[in-house]
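Colleagues,

Please find the record for the two-part complex below.
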Amino acid sequence: MTQLAGLRPLRKTGLFLRQAKGENAVYNPASGKVHLLNATAWAIWDLCDGDTDPEEMIDAICEISRMHRDLVSEDVRRVLKEFDEAGLLVWLTEPQVPPN
Amino acid sequence: MEPGEQPRIRILLADEQSLFREAVRVVLESQPDLEVVSEAGDGLQAALEAERTRPDVALVDAHLPNADGVHITPLILECRPECKVVVLADAEDHELLIEALEAGASGFLTKGSPLSELIDAARRVQRGEVLIPPRLLGPLLGRLIRRRREQDQAYRQMSKLTKREKEILALLSDGADNNAIAQALVISPGTARTHVQNVLSKLGVHSRLEAAAFVIRNGIRDELQEATR
């Protein structure tokens, strides 16, 4: 995942998610690892729907947080890179069409 | 204040229930860095108190009488632009959260939150952070992205209109009929009707009402007026 342009992250299937007492966890049976996500990472995870591209994520977070775009962009890219390296994502070149 | 001591965070507390205000005041003032400088029982009083006491942070109930928390937020910010407003809601309400943020609030907290979160919220917003309940963050971002896409689509649709058609759309969104449009633009009612049909067709809508709703829903009224100047 070196270039994000035109790519849309999609959560892999077969992962187990758990939200409890303010903790968000993703268990990847393929690697046997549990990944704990903070609130921002969880929100980004939620947006990995195969339809939303990273630039849209960055724009929306900027709008809410009123933070500088460079900072937000760096954070979003870092989180997506971590997801990617943990084997939690696939990258689509075309938007995922939701099933009817 | 002792020399070298950090200035305390000055707080305005606005809630209809005096018991709630008193309880929160006691808790906030148990913290050495927080000071409740004024209280208000309704929205208008909150705006007046903000102007009078110039707080750093305003904790305002979402359902204040005489101008609720969302409506009072811009008034507080007008009196005191440096003030950070936290809206306190009864429940996690997505619509209310969006309205509060759009009104300029820096934070949103439910009244079911522990008092420690309220204390933390006062400190964090004063530092410039924006506070959103973690469970609402994902859905909020999703909604913003959808709305932004709709707006982009609306701009694309609008770019198909000629300057004259934009003038027609602006008038339509004000509720003008063919005669009023004709009068405003000094054209015949028949020409106005033709323009209206073209506007509806280019926007892909079926009625004047839908066209007006398109303008309002996508918040493009100002752009329309700008484009027709």
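The beta strands of chain A are 8-11, 16-20, 23-28, 33-37, 89-92.

Comments are welcome before we finalize the supplementary table.
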